[in-house]
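call fold target=Possible Carbohydrate phosphorylase
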Amino acid sequence: MTKSREQLEKWMSETNSLLHKRLRNRAIKRRTLRALTLTSFILIVATEIAPNADGQVVFGAFLGIALYHFSIELENLEDSE
């Protein structure tokens, strides 16, 4: 192989590695944002429903659901890394 071809292959390998890392980081950010958004939505729904029912029970239930969902999303993030 010529020197220029070796350099080209090395450059392509480095570029591919950087691109893969960047896409993975973008996917992690997107998943984290999705988890936070859904958790926030669940909490907003809880605050809207709570005054109409037994507030503490409803809010506690929705808070539990939100935290459970968020923990599942974080586990999925750790597994994907």
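return ok
The CA atoms of residues 8 and 39 lie 46 Å apart. The chain has a mean pLDDT of 74.
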